[in-house]
Amino acid sequence: MASKSKELLSIPIDARNLSIIVFSLFSGWELSFVFEGQVLYAICKQYHLDPHAMIFGSIAALFTGLLACGIFIKNIKAAKRWMLLSFALCIAGTGAFLFTPSIIWKPLLMSMAFLAGTCVAAWGFYFRGFTPFNERIKTVAEALIYSNILMILINAVAINGSPHVGLVLSMLMLAGALFFTTQLPEESPNEEYSSPTESTESGGLVKALAFLCLFIFIITINSGLMYQVINPAFAHHQWLVSWYWSVPYIIALYIMKILPRGIIRTYMLYVAIAMIGFAFIAFMNADRSAASYLLINTLMLGACGVFDLFWWSSLGEMLDLEENPAKILGIGLSANVLGVLLGGGLGKAITGQEVQTHDLSMLALVIVFVSLIILPLLHRQLYILLENHAYLGALFETPAANKKDDTVGSVSAAVTDQITARENEIITLIVKGRTYKMIADELHISENTVKSHIKHIYSKLDVKRKPELISLMLENPSADKATTNKTKTSGN
């Protein structure tokens, strides 16, 4: 029986890692090819083609795919099947670019970008299903780090070697994603979503998501400007650009990932906004040397790493508040793509009219200023909804925060006086990240019995969803200790 329990406990860990592998391999192809990919730029350069029309079309298609996925993908089984079909079609479509240019290139690229958008959103089912909500920042960080390492590898081959070899390498990444997707489970042990709470019933989720999308859209306009204006200005440093491009991004993700949970990451968002501002000021005043590139790219991409982890993990914790996670993830990330699209369009228009670098940097600084205005408002909305998020600290008091503090203060007494020994066991397992199915197997009871106990626990502790319960336990060690001690006493 012990070996069986161990095997059951290993399932979600394996599935989580497997989902990260699938995302990383797929995104390595996506970032190097259909989404402002250097492989596509290199192939167009080889055939003396203007890539911009195709690139803007593919970004628009990616945006559409992100929004559309939640409409027709309703469960994890459909998500897996759609990803398998999309990966196979994208491998075939990418292969067409190994041959001489034809009129089908642009529609093929847009079709693959649309499929890529739907796959990113569909991955939300695995993101929610196999990563506990308080661990999602780690899953996001790992997935983004690995995918960018793969992108660097593909870009370096395409830029410094052969574009077609880089393209074949990206196809192999996609083939790997296809293979590992076949190994993904079709059922999730954490498929349930939370019932509405006071904040969600009053439109809290909609408000928070709207503010988050607005912030993502505005801040990523600068990313579009970077793609179309800053990067071309340093294109003559081919070797350096080919590998250093995402290094600061990866380092920022890793630093944010390993920071202790007690450290409030909110201040890093303001630091990141300042980094973007300094990057454009440096671009306005510095020369086009390798040293200038290192400075500007480090500031810009380091800030992008901080922000990407912030909104990816925020969206990840919102997934528990919506029945279909593809909707939340798709809507949130579509704001990112829309910002890049608008910023890229502005950048292309600016370079076409030969606008002075000073004017470009002033536009970017205006965007930075607007971001600074929005960030406190966004923080307030997210803090009401996602109180325990690693990026969100109590910079100011809110009614929800006061109510939460009162509840935490009373948890210890509630646990010792009201909660039964069996309910204590279930609370302990929930805090450890166990799913309902795993709890049922470990305690040798049915899932329906587990859900019945959890319903009673929620009622006694005055919480309405699993994240609230975990938050109370994590932030009130005395309560957690009380549950453990009572369970041990009952066992004796």
The biggest beta sheet, please?
none
Distance between the termini: 21 Å
What name goes with the CATH superfamily of the domain at 1-192?
A: MFS general substrate transporter like domains
| Helix fraction by DSSP (H/I, runs of at least 4) | over 70%
Q: List the uncertain runs.
A: 1-13, 191-202, 394-416, 478-484, 486-492
Structural class: mainly alpha
* C-alpha Rg (nearest Å): 24 Å
Number of strands: 0
Examine the coordinates and then state which fold CATH places here, giving the name of the CATH topology of the domain at 1-192: Growth Hormone, Chain: A
**Average pLDDT, to the nearest integer?**
81
Name the overall outline.
globular
Instruction: Please report the first level of CATH classification, the CATH class of the domain at 1-192.
Output: Mainly Alpha
Strand content: under 5%
Helix-strand sequence: HHHHHHHHHHHHHHHHHHHHHHH
Helix count, DSSP H or I runs of 4 or more residues: 23
Q: Do you know the CATH architecture of the domain at 1-192?
A: Up-down Bundle
Description of the structure:
This protein is mainly alpha-helical and 492 residues long. It has helices spanning 2-32, 38-46, 52-72, 76-95, 105-122, 124-130, 136-160, 163-182, 198-201, 204-219, 221-233, 238-244, 247-258, 266-285, 290-318, 325-352, 357-385, 399-417, 421-431, 436-443, 447-461, 466-475, 477-491. Among the domains are: 1-192, Growth Hormone, Chain: A (Up-down Bundle), CATH 1.20.1250; 399-491, Rossmann fold.
